[in-house]
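User: Can you predict the 3D structure for this chain?
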Amino acid sequence: MRWVWLGLVSSLMGCGPRVQPRYASWDPVRSDIPRSASRAEARARLGASYALWRKWRDPNPLGIMQINPLPDRYVYERAVQTSPSQVGFTLFVVQGGRVAVRAFMTADPRKLSVGAGRAGPPHVTSRWVEHGAQVGAHEEGAPAKTVDQLYAECSRLIEQGDPLPRLYFEAGGLLMQCGVPAEECSSCESASMLWVSRYSLREVPPGDPAAWLCETESALIAPGNQSPFLASEYVCAAAEPPRPPGPPLESTADSGAICATDPNACAPPRPAAAWLQESPDTCPSGPEHTPLALDVGKSDPLAEWRFPFSSSPQIECSGGLRLRNIRPDP
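Assistant: Here is the predicted structure, written as structure tokens:
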């Protein structure tokens, strides 16, 4: 599987114009991601980012008993742009230190956008979902790795790589991209990640993984995962887990017969979909412009990330241009 992913990215570079992905978080690695000044600087920055990851992954490192302990489960996503008109998104559900679910979706990057009230990403096509022992069966998609394995792969590239990999980090300081542009090394591996979330995808729809994600310009995000580029009035919401048609909650032993004779008397199936929902905001603010390639991250994991937002022109909102700032808490 590792070589299939490498082969896919490498084959894009072999003929015709090189594919320069729309965002620095997507593979193949963009050539305008700044270089590390030295191997020592690359080590230090990856180490600082890994410390942030461990803090996120293990919020209770001392093992203090909690009433509602967080489960050993998370979801993350990777992307590779294969042409100007296609990008592939691989979704991973990690549990117990292994990939339990892997899913693959494709889209036209030129059509990806943000829009409220839409059930599931309208410009995304679900391709397949793998569960348990099936994980790794398909040749498409990024290889099944945990986030810890991505950090380990990046560390190996720093220690053994020549040239050094380009490093880029998301707004909160977690690893976003680690690799070498194809023009410098056509067969080098990369370790990339769009986002990571604790949202529990226990019931990924077998044939439609995109149904549980929200579409944005740069990623398909999980419910509750606040993209730094979303306008303040948007939130990625999710329906309840899917349920087949059935009798109402106050059903009796004869309710099955009632459903057969009068379907309107019974509860409808619950939709299996996520959507961008508009939430009340008296002074909404939104991005000043569509994010550019390098706007999605930063070179130093501990640096402050900034992006211009404009707020409502109403007097009570103090409208105008302002910056959305995110600074990691080591």
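The mean pLDDT is 80. The CA atoms of residues 230 and 286 lie 7 Å apart.
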